[in-house]
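Handout, page 2. Input:
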Amino acid sequence: MYKGNNAFLQLSACILFACVLTACKKDNIVDEIIPKLTSVKLKAGSNFPAIDNDIDNPLTAEGIELGRLLFYDTRLSGNNKISCASCHRQDIAFTDAVALTNIGASGKKLERHTPALFNLAWAKNGLFWDGGSTNLESQAFGPLTSADEMHQNLVELETELKQVPNYVTRFKAVFNEEVKSANIVKALAQFQRTLISDGSKYDQYVRKENNVSLLDVEISGMNLVKAKCGSCHVGELFTDDLFRNNGIDDTYPDDLEGIYQGRFRVTFNLADLGKFKTPSLRNVMLTAPYMHDGRFKTIDDVLEHYNSGIKISATLDKSLYQNNGNVGIPISATEKIAIKAFLSALTDNSFISNKKFSNPN
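Output:
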């Protein structure tokens, strides 16, 4: 009887040990499938406004890196020749130096100028020149699927990326799902929110870093920009993130689904006719040509437009009446030199050379 009990106890102990061992193995498997992600909180210089984290797409180091891989991957286009970076070059603040590009899948010239990509973590009032998308995630679907841009079938894209073991592993780790288009745009958005430009000469000056000082001409230009341009290019972001009619046109045809009508195309509010997103002045000396259609080749062209070329229409921005109540912003030749000097001080060389934003391949 004693021997039987002993054998029973030994058998029970073995079974218990096996159960514990099995449970440990299962835990290890779970850990391997769903590794702990590294949460990231965006930071910017002390002169910048606070950043509100996106609760619907929280940033992780792994998600950001996945987004960077996708941003530079030509597989995101239907012909496997075009990546996001094809039109958004880091060396020129993620724009393309072309008025209206035609490198898309159809070869047709687009109707709008490629916008620069930086400080998008603060862009809360719609994206595209007319604010047609509400956030970075929805915005990405536009160029991905447009016949004149990347012309990608999203189902085919998912299938193609599922053939890449590295992507399969990364998507599972970041989103705990297989490759899906909804998570492709989430990863792209995570990477783009990290594109913070806050290291210009001006920034170092206002933060009193590295003993940096502005020249007298740059300080003069800074004061002129605040006085003459500050109603739209406001604050440390140098944009109000709003839509304004700056008088480059006085008629707004409804051709091409109203693409020339600006914000009106989205809201159908006549008060928005001819209004387009206010771009930031940061890195502006890198991002020529200018305006939503790239019509002005140089910053001198832009300044002269405000000085003498503004066209009057019902929705023209009231801040452009600076000439004794008449339309226009008087800018002398000397003032233009000073303004350009200050705009050059807004160039962020550390941003355009930051390896965290560059092609990982």
